[in-house]
Design a protein that fits this description.
By secondary structure, the protein is α/β, with parallel strands linked by helices. The protein folds into 2 domains: about 1-135, Dna Topoisomerase Vi A Subunit, Chain: A, domain 2 (3-Layer(aba) Sandwich); about 150-235, no CATH class. It is built from 10 helices and 7 strands. The longest helix is centred in the N-terminal third of the chain and has 14 residues, at about 65-75. GO terms for molecular function: 5'-3' DNA helicase activity; ATP binding; single-stranded DNA binding.
């Protein structure tokens, strides 16, 4: 059936027998091909002929062997562009479907995607895994300058991670987290504070003191100098404080 395929055809139904391809073309008009060695063999030499198609539906037969072959072929052809017709009494091979007066077009539309949007194979992850192995330091994230021991535990501040610090009242959570955030902020990590218990003024005072490394209340003449430098950081504060409506 290859000679009947046009250069503009982007959808294809792949079958196991010539009569199935003819039945499909007769009943639906879709581009159809038959595998030259039956439903259980897809020689690698044929793959280049199938590159032009954006969507391939595999309708190979009506037994378990054909179904397993279809799943294997879909992996060879790229799962993203393949759909499979699952064999059943209501979905026999195309020639039988035509002879029984079944709606062949409806069966094609009900074909199952070979890939699931929530499931991937290692083949799809392979290059990304290699990238992580090559760029180990980059994957580790941005390391803290002040907390070398923390780097050993968390490997740095990494995109997509959520870290929760817990402890009793007065144990120093806020003091530590402000230092922790300031360390990263000084390295260019854009930082947003959402503090519902401590006012932004008090929080900014703590962070400015940590940033300056001195008690500015005893050296007020230095306030503007350190405030100007602190102002240049990518540091922002939410205006929420106390109890808030969840919306």
């Amino acid at each position: 059936g290859l000679h009947l395929i046009g250069q503009r055809d982007t959808e294809l139904v792949l079958t196991g027998w010539e009569l199935d391809a003819l039945a499909l073309h007769q009943s639906t008009g879709v581009a159809s091909l038959a595998l030259p060695r039956g439903a259980t063999c897809l020689p690698p030499a044929l793959l280049p002929y199938l590159e032009q198609f954006k969507r391939i539906t595999l309708w190979l037969g009506e037994d378990l062997r054909s179904w397993e072959a279809a799943k294997l072929f879909a992996r060879k052809l790229s799962l993203k562009r393949c759909s499979l017709v699952r064999p059943s009494d209501l979905q026999p091979r195309p020639l039988e479907a035509l002879n029984q007066g079944l709606n062949v077009t409806k069966i094609l539309r009900a074909a199952l995607p070979a890939s699931h949007k929530s499931i991937v194979s290692f083949r799809q992850l392979r290059e990304e895994v290699f990238g992580e192995l090559v760029n180990t330091e980059q994957v580790a994230g941005i390391k803290w300058a002040r907390f070398p021991e923390l780097n050993k535990l968390l490997k740095g501040h990494r995109r997509g991670e959520l870290t929760i610090f817990t402890g009793p009242t007065g144990s120093g959570k806020t003091t530590f987290i402000s230092e922790y955030a300031l360390d990263l902020c000084m390295q260019g990590v854009c930082t947003l504070w959402g503090s519902f218990e401590i006012s932004n003024v008090r929080l900014a005072k703590i962070m400015l003191t940590q940033f300056a490394g001195r008690r500015l209340e005893d050296q007020l003449e230095l306030y503007d100098e350190w405030a100007d430098r602190f102002e240049d950081l990518q540091l922002y504060f939410m205006t929420f404080h106390g109890q808030q409506n969840i919306k």
